[in-house]
Specification:
This protein is an alpha+beta fold. It is built from 2 helices and 7 strands. Strands 1, 2, 3, 4, 5, 6 and 7 form a 7-stranded antiparallel β-sheet that branches.
Length: 150
């Protein structure tokens, strides 16, 4: 009986500390994103999930949804300007169900032909995992142009 109590207590402590860590990470990411917006004189809008976006051009074609296959020309950078990935001018094609949550939420903010910037907190990116040259807990900045929606 005492062992079950101890295991339950330890589980609860782990869950609470995990939630606190995520909350602190979300606050830190928001601070980083707001500083980036200020430093780069951007007119960004929040979505409520932690994602911020800048619309250069909304576009005038089809609007994607989570089930869409899209072609996007993009450049991904860290907040210090380090480029970690980019497509060619003809873009990259993929189903929205196969990309990070920040893209699943952000790309449908544009219509076909639209362009802008997605400022993605780590929780909507790769979280606490390092991926290639992207460090763990990184805020991601994507310049995007939505070329095609299928």
């Amino acid at each position: 009986m005492q062992r079950i109590f101890v295991l339950t207590l330890l589980s609860s402590i782990f869950i609470v500390s995990s939630c606190t860590k995520n909350f602190r990470s979300n606050q830190l990411d928001e601070k980083i994103i707001l500083q980036y917006i200020s430093d780069n004189n951007l007119n960004a809008e929040p979505t409520g999930s932690g994602l911020y976006y800048v619309v250069d051009n909304y576009g005038n074609g089809d609007v994607p949804n989570i089930q869409s296959i899209v072609t996007v020309a993009y450049k991904g950078t860290l907040t210090d300007g380090t480029i970690f990935d980019q497509s060619g001018a003809s873009g990259a094609t993929f189903p929205l169900t196969h990309v990070i949550q920040g893209w699943q939420e952000g790309i449908p903010l544009f219509s076909e032909g639209g362009s802008g910037i997605l400022l993605i907190p780590s929780a909507l990116g790769y979280g606490n995992q390092a991926i290639g040259s992207i460090p763990a807990n990184s805020v991601l900045i994507f310049e995007v142009t939505l070329l095609n929606v299928d």
